[in-house]
Design goal:
Blueprint lengths: L2 H17 L18 E2 L10 H28 L3 E3 L10 H6 L26 E4 L12 E4 L4 E4 L8 E3 L2 E5 L4 E4 L11 E5 L2 E6 L2 E6 L5 E2 L8 E8 L2 E8 L2 E8 L4 E8 L2 H5 L5 H5 L2 E4 L2 E5 L5 E5 L4 E5 L19 E9 L2 E10 L2 E9 L5 E3 L12 E6 L2 E6 L5 E4 L5 E3 L12 E4 L4 E4 L14 E4 L4
Antiparallel strand pairs: 1-28, 2-6, 3-31, 4-5, 5-7, 7-8, 9-10, 10-11, 11-12, 13-14, 14-15, 15-16, 17-18, 18-19, 19-20, 21-22, 22-23, 23-24, 25-26, 26-27, 27-28, 29-30, 30-31
Amino acid sequence: MTAIEDRLRSEMPQLADQLRVTPDLSRSESGPDDNDIERVSFGPSRRWLWAAASVVAIAGLSAVAVANQKWRSDAESDGGEIAIDAVAEPADQTSQATRSEPAVQTPDTDNRDQRRVEPATEAGGRWEVVAEAPIRSRSYPVAAWTGDDFVFWAGSSLDRKFAYSDGARYDPATDSWSGLATPGWGHPGLTGTLVGDQIYAAAKGGLTAINVDTGEFVEVVAPTEFALTHVISGGGYLWGAGRIGDDLGIGQLDPVDNIWTIYPPLVDGWVAFVGDQTAEAWEEGIHWANGRIVVWSRSGTGYTLDTVEDRWDEIILPAPPVDKNLGGDATPSSLISSRAVGTDLGLAVVAQFDVNGITLIFAGVDNGLDGFQWFTDPIAKDALDRIALANAGQHLMILRSYGSPTTVDLVTGEQVVHHESPIGARSGAATVWTGRQLMIWGGESPDDVDQPLVGALWTPPKP
């Protein structure tokens, strides 16, 4: 008897028992409804397709065992990982430069017609599974859209215990991957962004640029006023932030002249917005939102930089709407935590409140003109430390560590839970908005969730 058969025979009774138990709705959304799309109101649907789940579970258990065996084999021979204590300066990584080059995949035919495409719906848009990448899935990679293809480079494990040095490019027109020339270097705390044809990467307080076509390092000057901890792109410029004592320094680099413009620091900004937070929490702190630089704290405080008047203006969150039947109000003092992301329509915020012992999560947007506006309906419950936010144009994409992704229309406030999405529960995935589609790739699944980490493109519904 093979190990897979033995596991199936021994675990099937337990699996059958688990399927009869009421699911833990605190960790995942309810199952798909008749149309595989759930429009969220205050009480989401809880209809579960138990018979279908049983069949999928039996087939999935066998497939996972085979995939897991292959992953272990691949892991033993993979050369794209670098342990923290082995990450050094680029000159020390010559051996990694040859090992990190991914194999080029050239399809014999146009794979676009062969990819798995979920039917488009009026509310849910359309999902397309992309071809398997030639590099291993990882968390926090540098990801960008060049106008023709997607670029993914470096990244780390979810706990940032080691870094990757390789990369790849994905062409959505042919649904194919190709090699990305890389310098063979990575760092667990690296952050980066694409400006023009160069990736600007900040790590260990320094700054470098990499040509995405040649993989060569490009000399670039770093600000002298502060050590860079994060970089983002916006308005055709590179924006960098770092520490100046207790203050948060901010600057803008013109990629043509290679000259920094340094703006007044946000007083006590480092203490209030960074402090001892983990690197991934800090990465959420600075945003490019509808033409503005915004700094946001999980405590629900935000500031936007006025580059004309050289000053910081505070963003004030009003109290969100609460159903009167709950017998209480959500006030700024009842805010537990918040997350934010820059979008095409402004700064989108998701915040968690405690109302008479009941946890409610609301979404809202600040477009920079009309002040902050909350949407009426709360979002399906989930701890904010288990979600990630992504810009999808008029929509806010909420990715969950457990459960299906959710989108919020930032104009109408309509919410859709995407049970049909091929993107399952994961953390640390890269998201890139092209102006028409959202690419989601990479990340890691929770330890107790067995599923393939596919990449996918999401096309929003027509407005």
